[in-house]
Each structure stands twice: as C-alpha cells, then as structure tokens.
Amino acid sequence: MIIDKLYDAVKEKGNVCLGLDTDLDYIPLEFKNQYADDGEAILQFNKKIIDATLDVVAVYKVQIAYYEALGINGLKAYSATLKYLKEKGAVTIADIKRGDIANTAKMYAKAHFEGDFEADFITLSPYMGMDTVEPFMSYLKSGNKGVFMLVRTSNGGSMDFEYLETAKGNKVYEEVGERFQNLGESVLGQCGYSAIGAVMGCTHVDEVAKMREKLNKTFFLIPGYGAQGGTAKDVALYLKNGNGGVVNSSRGILLAYKNKEHEGKSFYEAARLEAIKMRDEILKYSTAKEN
Amino acid sequence: MIIDKLYDAVKEKGNVCLGLDTDLDYIPLEFKNQYADDGEAILQFNKKIIDATLDVVAVYKVQIAYYEALGINGLKAYSATLKYLKEKGAVTIADIKRGDIANTAKMYAKAHFEGDFEADFITLSPYMGMDTVEPFMSYLKSGNKGVFMLVRTSNGGSMDFEYLETAKGNKVYEEVGERFQNLGESVLGQCGYSAIGAVMGCTHVDEVAKMREKLNKTFFLIPGYGAQGGTAKDVALYLKNGNGGVVNSSRGILLAYKNKEHEGKSFYEAARLEAIKMRDEILKYSTAKEN
C-alpha cells in the first residue's frame, strides 16, 4: 500500500516533506529569465529542486493554489511536476483540500487520482462530513492511493471552528480525527498506519501526546514548521519512534539560497543542504525521545 | 457591488441558479460527436444551455470538479465557459470550495478572481477558520467580488460535523454562519445583503426560520433542490420577500431533455422550459408566503 511506501520512505530518508509551493517570486531572476513562459520557469525550478533532494526527502507536497494562480499555464506546470515526481519514483501529496458531495467528489477523485493531475495522496477538508470521503475509498482500498484529512491545522484561525468545544467535551478537531481514524481501519497498511492520514499542525503542542495516542493508526502530515513557529523539538512529539509523520517545509527549503549561510550556492544546492539540516534536526529530537 | 447585481438579477429573473456541473455523459451523443475534443464538446453544450436560459436564470454556478476531472482540456472548457458568461453579462459563481492559510488563499484569490478562471463569486470552506478568508477581503471591498461560505450543506454527511452541538448549545454551522455574517458587515451592499453569502442546503427545513432571521444580512446559495429532496415549498422558507437567495439546480435542468414531458425538444429548449418551471414553482410559494 502507498502508506507503506511512505512509511518506508521516512525510515530511509527521514521526515521531511518538501512543499513545492513554488511562487514565481521564489525563483532567482537569472534562472527565471531563461524561460519565456512562467509555467515553464516554475517547472524547471521544481525539477532542479527535486533532483537535488530526492534522496533526503520522504515525500513532495505540491500546493495546487500556486499553480492555479497562473491559470492554464500554471496547471500545465503542476501536471508536469507531478509526472516528473512519478518518473523519479517519489511519493507525492497533492495539497488540494477538496471536500464536496458524492457526485462531485467522484469527479475530484478522477481528477487527482487519475489523468493529468495524478498524485499518490491528496488532502481533503472534512467540513461537509464523512460521506464526502466515500467516493475516494475504492482508490484507497486498491492500495495505490491515500488521503490526508484536515484535522488540526497550523494557522491561528484553527482556533475558530476546529477548536470549538462540543457538548460532549471534545474539540471539533478531536471528533474529526477520531471519525477518520475509525474509517481508516478498513484501509490499514502493513506498517500499522491507514491510508487515511491527518493534517496535524505542529504550532499547538498542547494535547499532542493525547492526539498521538488516540490517533495511533493515523499518519500525520505536519505543517507549521519553521516560519510558522514549529520547532524540531515540537515536531518530535507528533512522531512515534521517529515515524508516523512527515513535516512539511516549503519556503524554508525553496528560499534557502537567500540565507547567508548558503551564500555562493545554487538555489538547489542550498535547498538540499537545508533539507538535510531539517531532517537531522528532527531526527535528533525524535531519537532523543525514544531513549 | 456584485451582491447588488445578484439581488437585482433575482428581482428580474427569479431565484434559479443553474449549475453547470457538466458531465460528459449528460451531453446527447449526436451533439458530442460533432467535437473531437471532450472539453470542446462540454463548452459548446454549455454555450447552448446559457444562450437558452440567460433571461430566466439569475446566476450560473460552475462546478470546477467536473472540469478538473478532464485535466487541462477540461479546465480550458471551464475557463472558456466563465469567459462566455462574462461576455453575456451573467453573474457567475465558481463552485471551488477552497479554504487554506493566508499565502495559499492569496493564490486562490488570484486564481479565481483574476485571470483565466475569473468568476464573480467563489465558494469557500470555513473549516480552517476566519483568517483563511482575510486574503479575499480586498476583492470583496472593491465591490466586484463575493464569496459563499459553506455553512449548512445539503448532503447527509452534514450531520457529522456541521451539526455537532457546541458547549454553548449551538450547532457548529450556526457558529460558522454567525461569524461570517459579522465579518460581512464590512462589505454590505445597498440591497442589505453582504458580499459574504452562505451555502444553506434546503434539505433540512428544521431551524430554517431561525437561520433566516439570524443571518438576515446573508445571501443564501441553496443547494439540495430536486434530486436531493428539497421542494419549492421548502425553498421559500429560505427567502425573504422572494429574494435573499438563489436555488441551485444542475442535473434537473441539464438533463431535462430526457424527461418525457420534453420529448422532441432539443436539450437546450428542454433546459429552458425546466428552468422556467422551477422559477415559477419557487415564485408561487415565496409569493404565497408574503401574502
């Protein structure tokens, strides 16, 4: 199952999820200017980053919004980026945060698990309820695909509705997490995690131990590292024996070439060094925790 | 403001929102076979439907999932459909249900309020909280754009999280609705409704009077009519003096040509007749309610 492939990738390469949220402004001018088309510039930038990080990154997350913003050309680059990652044997997450009723969800499944925009995992928003995930289940049961449900996100606004206390004394996000862990029982991998993962931001370390224990079969996609405030020490609390989660970094890696410490390096060499640094930082704390 | 344009469109043309959820399978074979490309077939089908209904439909809702499912070609048809609607002066809703953190939301705003995929309104999912809507506010304040937040959807799964009871004794969807009505105060149109509307399914008529009263400045986008069980009588409860809401129908109108009563008619003539029937049905009850 794809979740086992992700689990093995973490074992082999560490916990880094590289977010290809490639903003045009992130691309060094002299590189961008080689390409007449913006979509092409983004694609070539992505390829350089991918080539330089394949052996130190567990999974790539492609945020579709950055490509949609450039219209059809951007989406061609999105499609080509996913195809390139597939060719290279990398695990991919399409960060699309869809969530809709049955017929529409079926179309989203077709869009993002097949054809031009095919990815291994997609992110989904749970607001509309459990039946919005139903149309994806046959793909999950095939073993080739997985999803990450938004459970507790890393932004400040997560307090507004995710953190609402229910009459039963739970938070909304706890209820969401539990419902999807239960659904995941039907699509468990050999690694012990299910094909239904959870987005679990590392910006609130309160209650993390409780969540890690409750959602013990749920693989975490962890945003919020770096710029948003999450540290390697925080992140370690979201892992189990160093696995069971991947930690996303986008700007931190894509823009590493702007850091003083990487001066003189190409953008992709700097990205590689930054990914290694992040991997090792997380490893240090997640290993320390075990001992 | 665009919400005033929508309000006026309802006054002039009734409450029908035509959902262009155009599945390839909806298109009559003899029409589809004229086009080598599936995207082109969908676009030409949409144009015929649009031309036949412009004077009896308040607004068109284009569900992006159906186009994404066909990849790049599908999204070209999506883009061209929105451009055609704009040329014709129609009000448009892009049903995209996005919802993401600030930087990403900015990209979505650029994607769907500018460029290839520009629409007048977009739908947004509230799960991640209020700050996910912030990047759209400058567009709303310009007067040219609006959003519909998912509040209470029409599917069975809406019971799972939208209906969770909070410690304060509210439902989650009530909390969501109120928060966004309050935010909408800063973008009120002359018609009394704000540029922040709500998706409010007509499949649960319980509590509708309470919601209509509480969310008195919130324009409703109402799914669930027809196939999902909502009737014209139900829908009337969601309106205020016959305005303040539009009622979506997709398959009911697009597939009207398969109904016995429209035998011998073209698909677009049948669509027109069905839209008129729906408009008049709703009008009957919403007017009856006033008297």
Automatic annotation (TrEMBL), chains A, B:
EC identifiers of the protein: 4.1.1.23
Active site location: K97
Location of the Orotidine 5'-phosphate decarboxylase domain: 15-266
Keywords of the record: Decarboxylase, Lyase, Pyrimidine biosynthesis
InterPro entries for the chain: Aldolase_TIM, OMPdecase_AS, OMPdecase_type-2, OMPdeCOase_dom, RibuloseP-bd_barrel
Pathway this chain belongs to: Pyrimidine metabolism; UMP biosynthesis via de novo pathway; UMP from orotate: step 2/2
First-level EC class: lyase
Substrates-to-products reaction catalysed: orotidine 5'-phosphate + H(+) = UMP + CO2
GO MF entries: orotidine-5'-phosphate decarboxylase activity
GO process terms (BP): 'de novo' pyrimidine nucleobase biosynthetic process; 'de novo' UMP biosynthetic process
Transmembrane segments: none
Pfam families linked to this entry: OMPdecase
Keyword Lyase: yes
Membership in a protein family: Belongs to the OMP decarboxylase family. Type 2 subfamily.
HAMAP family: OMPdecase_type2
NCBIfam families in alphabetical order: pyrF_sub2
UniProt protein name: Orotidine 5'-phosphate decarboxylase
Organism annotation: Clostridium cellulovorans (strain ATCC 35296 / DSM 3052 / OCM 3 / 743B)
Gene responsible for this protein: pyrF
